[in-house]
Every structure is written in structure tokens, then in C-alpha cells.
Amino acid sequence: xxxxxxxxxxxxxxxxxxxxxxxxxxxxxxxxxxxxxxxxxxxxxxxxxxxxxxxxxxxxxxxxxxxxxxxxxxxxxxxxxxxxxxxxxxxxxxxxxxxxxxxxxxxxxxxxxxxxxxxxxxxxxxxxxxxxxxxxxxxxxxxxxxxxxxxxxxxxxxxxxxxxxxxxxxxxxxxxxxxxxxxxxxxxxxxxxxxxxxxxxxxxxxxxxxxxxxxxxxxxxxxxxxxxxxxxxxxxxxxxxxxxxxxxxxxxxxxxxxxxxxxxxxxxxxxxxxxxxxxxx
Length: 281
Known about the structure:
Structural class: mainly alpha
Number of strands: 0
Helix content: 55-70%
Radius of gyration: 23 Å
């Protein structure tokens, strides 16, 4: 007869992360998981093609100053680059973000996550960090690298001395775009167990607001109604940060209020949906 081993209580002999740092484990696992997907890596490579095009533009203007009349190197170049990256922000938000919480809900993993010494805020922060990391890698990082490219080819800080708002505008504009997209996508991901439904819902929100803006502009004959469009609000704030002429008649404070309101709404949704036990009302 084989011996019966003692199964009584024993103290945990492993290591514990300090309270508030468990989110790094979730973030690290999520980031490594995305890097293991070949299709996603192809998307990241495509997202850096506009950077190469802009770098060639800067080189051409530096070597042939007359080309600057057609392709000027000024604050608008960096503003336009960040706005053009919005298409990649859209696709990466869907590819990375649609399943961040939806997959856990489908597998009933929220109960497992939140039954451990893991704060709900840590769980959300870990998931949010995954999306913020990849969105920053196609907006903030390449935009800042463009600054170094311009300084290197120009052999000086002449452009930035004349336009000191460029670097702060790059940081703030990128941060606003990726923060709004990340919170909105994470909130939508918490509403369903289907990643496809979340992707469709996010796409619908983006295109519905654009379509509504187009209809209202046609009816009213003014772009003051641009506040209904998520993309227009982001562009309006970017124009102000880069000190460029506003693209819409909507007051800047209105666009900023809409973006802040969207983030607050997303946080409220996450607070209600990310729970260890499903609450049926």
C-alpha cells in the first residue's frame, strides 16, 4: 500500500509581487502574445512605411531646398504624419484590443483573475498597457524618430527653435489619440464575449460618427457640427497643439470636452463590466 502524503495547509513558498505591480505580468504576457502573431507583425511593418516616406521627403528637401516649395518641412509635416497614422491606430485597435477582455469573458477567466490577490484596476491597467504600447509604437515613436531624422539631415535645431511647439505637440497629440482609442476599445471589449462583435461595434462607432457629421454638414452648411465625429475632434485638437489653422468651425473646447467625456464614459463602462462575479439586473 502506497503511503498517504500529508495534504494539510502549508504556507506559500513562492514570491509575491508588491501590491500594484501585478498589472505588469498581464501587460507583458499580452505584448509577447501579439509579437508571436505573424499577421500582426506584417501590420506593424506596414504601419512604418509612412515613416520611411516622410524620412525620404525630409532628405530630398534637405539635399534640394527648392523641393521645399512643394514639400515643406514645417510643423504641418509632423501634424499630417500623426493624422495619417490614424488608419493604423484603427486597425491595431481592432486587432489587439477587441479580444483583450472579450476573450477573458468568453473563457470565464475574469473570475479566476479577480479571485487572486489582483486588484480590478491592475487587471484593467494591464490590458490597457498592451494596447497603449502598440498604438504608441505606430504614432508617438515614429513621429519622434522623424524629429531626429530632420535634425540629423538639417544638422541643427533651426526648425525646432522657430517652432518650439513641435515636440510637445507630437507627444500630446499622440497621447490623446492612443488614450481615447485604447479606453474606447477596452470598454467595448468588456461588453461582449465575441471579438468579432466588438470589432464590428468599434468600426460602427467610427464610421457612424463620420457619416453623421457628413449628413449634418450637408444640412447645416457648416463644419461647426464636427463635434459629432470622433476623428474630427481628434484632428481639431491636433491642429491647436501644432498651432495650425483649425480644420473645422467647432470650438476647440467643445472637441476637448467630447474626447474627455468619451474617456470618462469608457471608464464608467469598465467599472461596471469588469467584475469577478456577473451581476444580473
